[in-house]
Structure formats: C-alpha cells, structure tokens
C-alpha cells in the first residue's frame, strides 16, 4: 500500500506525479520532495515558492521542512530568501548530524555552499498583489494579513516508510523575519513510520500554540484512525483557543497512517485537499459542513476545478 495526501488543490499536479513514482517503487522521500517542488515552481500559487507573496518590505521569505519517519530526522529552513525549492534545502539539512534548522542568512549560506539554485523569487505578479494590498489597506482599512495557504504533505511508500514536508511563503505582508508553524516540528508537521503523519495549514501563530500535528500522530498511536485523530485534535484545540482567547485562527490538518488510510479536519469553510493512494486516483476534495456543523467531504466538481485555475491565472491590474 502507498499513498500521499496534501493540503489544498494546488498540490494536485505534484501528488499526481508522486503517485506514479510510488507506483514504480520510489521512496517516500523522493516522492514527497518532487510533489512539493511542483507547487514551489508554479508561479501562480501565490502562497508557496516562486511567486509567493512578499512580506511588508516586499521581500519573499520562505519557510520549509522535511521529516523522515523512519529515523525522525528533520530539516527546516525559515525566512530564507532568493533560493528556489526550499523543501530540497530542508531535506538536505535533515541528513546533517546537527544544525538541522537554519534561518535567514545562515540558511542562505548553507544553500550557497551546497550548490542549491539561487533565484529571485519575487515575480511581477507578486509585486502587483503587494501594491494592490497596500492601496486597499489604506483606502478600506483592510488587514494586510491574508493568504497563508501552506502546502503540507504526508507520504507512505510501498515499504511502509513515511515522510512529511511543508513549504510556504507565510502570511502576506508579514513582518520581516516572521516564521510560522510550517517549519516547526510537531506544529506544522510530524511523522513516525511506525504510526503515521500529519501536517497543518492555517494561522501559524495559533497552530503553534497546540502542536496539533504531533497530537494527531499521538492519537493514532493510541489506536485512533487518521480521521478520528484529526477530528479530536482539531475540535479540542479549536475549543481550547476560543475558551482561553475568545477566538481561534484558521486551522486545517491532514493525516495519513502507515497503511495509507487518511483523515482531514478543519475549522474553516472552503478548505480543499488532494489525495492519491494505490487504490485511489489523484482526487481533490472539498470540506463541507452540514446544518449541525458536522464536516463531510465531497469530490471537487470539474466546474470548481476549472474556476480554481482561472481565478489564479487571471491577469492582474495594478490598482
């Protein structure tokens, strides 16, 4: 059995390629890195990699992580600038004996010394988004912080080896140097090949308060299915934040165990995710809620999928 699950529709092309690799016997590490890189390289996905939305100083700072579920090795980068495919840099760091989490200039020096591709990650399209948001914020008193759709993935290969990975440009117009949950072990991601893995997307500042990815893996270790674990962890932590703080930020979690079974839970409308397993073709699902507030999944329609791409690739005009 093999499989891969990812946050958001933007992962579909990547997990489609990863499934073919897994079918041919590729390792979970190679498959998940390939899948995340596909998202990082597509400039129209404005919350990850090339074309990612800039910080308040109009600089693109990227966060990424990789975890090996066999060894529990992790590699992470935070606030790295001007390097393509931060997930690959994170994976390389996971193989180092120490210094596994590097940020800013230190991460960039490591990437340079190890021959990673240097690239200006700020696109003209992202500049237009930035200038439009500045104008909207002044004219309409809008909050600049929006658009924080991390791509997070969990993968299991034919040998039941597992990996997890994340990549993001973080909050739009964040302060320089801000790092969210995505590269933080236990918060943005966690995986154990003896159990399963989980990954998060949402408001990092709130996700980090609960180490929700680790909690999901812990619940699976106690015998919960991935879906049960997601439901319990997300529901309980959402309630806890609201009790203590009066509100809870966006929080969506995906999970997969070492049998390729998966689960998803969210506290927002509009969350999408993508799955591919040995038995299931690459599919995009939308999370919906019934009148009682109970979530359920439906396969995204062709109309929804077409509109998704049209919206993201539509020409932009500076306001």
UniProtKB/TrEMBL annotation:
| MF terms in GO | hydrolase activity, acting on carbon-nitrogen (but not peptide) bonds, in linear amides
Cellular compartments per GO CC:
cytoplasm
Which residue positions hold the site described Cleavage? 149-150
UniProt-listed InterPro entries: Ntn_hydrolases_N (IPR029055), Peptidase_T2 (IPR000246)
Positions contributing to substrate binding: 178-181, 201-204
**Residues of the active site:** 150 (nucleophile)
The protein's name in its UniProt record: N(4)-(Beta-N-acetylglucosaminyl)-L-asparaginase
């Amino acid at each position: 059995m093999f499989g891969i699950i990812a946050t958001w529709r933007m992962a579909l092309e990547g997990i489609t390629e990863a499934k073919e690799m897994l079918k041919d016997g590729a390792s979970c590490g190679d498959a998940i890195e390939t899948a995340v890189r596909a998202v990082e390289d597509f400039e129209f996905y404005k919350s990850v990699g090339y074309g990612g939305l800039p910080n308040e100083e109009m600089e693109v700072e990227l966060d990424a992580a990789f975890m090996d579920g066999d060894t529990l090795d992790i590699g992470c980068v935070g606030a790295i600038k001007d390097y393509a495919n931060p997930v690959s840099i994170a994976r390389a760091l996971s193989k180092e004996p120490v210094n596994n989490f590097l940020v800013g200039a230190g991460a960039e020096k490591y990437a340079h010394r190890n021959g990673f591709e240097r690239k200006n990650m700020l696109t003209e399209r992202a500049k237009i988004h930035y200038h439009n948001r500045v104008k909207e914020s002044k004219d309409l008193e809008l909050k600049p912080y929006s658009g924080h759709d991390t791509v997070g993935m969990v993968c299991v290969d034919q040998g039941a080896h597992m990996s997890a990975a994340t990549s993001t440009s973080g909050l739009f117009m964040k302060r320089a140097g801000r790092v969210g949950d995505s590269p933080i072990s236990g918060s943005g991601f966690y995986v154990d090949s003896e159990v399963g893995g989980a990954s998060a997307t949402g408001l990092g500042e709130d996700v980090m308060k609960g180490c929700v990815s680790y909690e999901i893996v812990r619940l699976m270790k106690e015998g919960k299915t991935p879906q049960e674990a997601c439901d319990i962890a997300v529901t309980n932590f959402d309630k806890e934040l609201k009790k203590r703080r009066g509100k809870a930020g966006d929080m969506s979690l995906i999970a997969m165990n070492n049998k390729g079974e998966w689960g998803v839970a969210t506290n927002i409308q509009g969350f999408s995710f993508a799955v591919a397993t040995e038995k299931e073709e690459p599919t995009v699902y939308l999370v919906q809620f019934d009148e009682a507030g109970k979530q359920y999944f439906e396969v995204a329609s062709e109309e929804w999928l077409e509109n998704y791409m049209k919206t993201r690739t539509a020409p932009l005009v500076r306001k």
